[in-house]
Design a protein that fits this description.
The chain is an alpha/beta fold. Helix content is 49%, strand content 15%. Strand 2 and strand 3 form a beta hairpin. Helix 1 runs antiparallel to helix 2 and helix 6 packs parallel to helix 8. 39% of the residues are buried.
């Protein structure tokens, strides 16, 4: 297990507990009481740390290398029923954007999401979860197929942003994202979007329009990353913590501003500490959300979705 800087007090206590248990195994010394005291202190330390996380610390947790990614969720939710579909029928298959058909229980879904890598080789293969225009066009193709056959759509958001390279701009990155946002507002099947990690800028919005927007507790959703915001405002990444606070990018902030509809609670320490519980919680939230929209007619569904987005940003003088 890897530890973040603010988690070092937890690491120290866990190391102490391990040494205590090893001592008990290798000698006749009774370490039961000592182990219990360390375990009690460890639990209290965890609760204290994770109860008072700053916005920047939540950003760090959302990027934790052990955190489950899109394919982990798909495997847990759909098992062997998932069939990945490839290509945008125009340029090529974008490995940073994955999608396909899968069953959760007895219900079929079109599941689309950004996929990061877990080591150097796979990170390069997945382009660090940054999709090119063909990735968004593939996502739209799959959503249109789902609409044709009346299959609801699930999108899983986890990206540091759309790929900003020259070749992506030449192939119409901005147009591809804008087209997706337009088409998703009027897609005639239920759309459930879940922020499972980083939700950065247009990269997330390109598959982030939905009837229900869910957000895991230790994720973030913003127009820009704290580092990029810091570099623009202060010409340095040193102010990223200050930028994270100013951006109001946490799940709690998003819920308060009514940009997301529901926060999915994570196990103590983050989704990576207890993957199975996280998967079960996400599955329950998705199915509950689907049940809220499954009986609406396409016309009612689209009207409700447009009303939802029209109300975002309302204010009174």
């Amino acid at each position: 297990m890897e530890y973040l800087e603010f988690e070092l007090p937890i690491k120290e206590l866990e190391d102490q507990l391990q040494k205590c248990q090893v001592l008990g195994e290798e000698s006749d010394v009774d370490v039961t009481q000592a182990s219990k005291q360390i375990e009690k202190k460890l639990l209290a330390t965890k609760k204290d740390i994770y109860k008072n996380l700053t916005a920047w610390q939540r950003v760090q947790l959302s990027r934790h290398p052990n955190r489950p990614y899109t394919l982990d969720y798909i495997k847990a939710l759909c098992g062997d029923t998932f069939l990945e579909l490839h290509g945008d029928r125009n340029f090529k298959d974008d490995k940073a954007m994955i999608g396909g058909l899968g069953k959760i229980g007895d219900q079929s879904f079109m599941i689309i999401g950004q996929q990061k890598g877990f080591n150097t080789k796979t990170r390069q293969y997945r382009n660090f979860g940054m999709a090119n225009p063909e990735g968004y066009r593939k996502a739209l193709r799959l959503m249109k197929s789902a609409e044709k056959f009346g299959i609801p759509v699930i999108t899983l958001l986890d990206t540091p942003g759309a790929y900003p390279g020259l070749e992506a701009e030449e192939r119409g990155q901005g147009e591809a994202i804008a087209r997706n946002i337009l088409e998703m507002t009027r897609l005639q099947v239920p759309i459930i979007s879940v922020v499972i990690g980083e939700g950065a800028s247009g990269g997330a919005l390109g598959i982030g329009v939905g009837d229900k927007i869910l957000m895991l507790e230790n994720t973030w959703y913003s127009v820009i990353s704290p580092e990029s915001c810091s570099s623009i405002l202060w010409r340095s990444w040193e102010f990223k913590e200050r930028a994270a606070d100013a951006l109001k990018l946490t799940a709690k902030d998003m819920k308060k501003m009514k940009i997301v509809d529901e926060i999915i609670k994570e196990p103590l320490g983050g989704a990576h500490q207890d993957r199975e519980t996280t998967f079960k919680t996400v599955k329950a939230a998705i199915l509950d959300s689907y049940n809220q929209f499954k009986d609406l007619t396409p016309k009612e569904l689209v009207a409700k979705r447009i009303d939802k987005y029209a109300q975002i940003g309302e204010f009174k003088d």
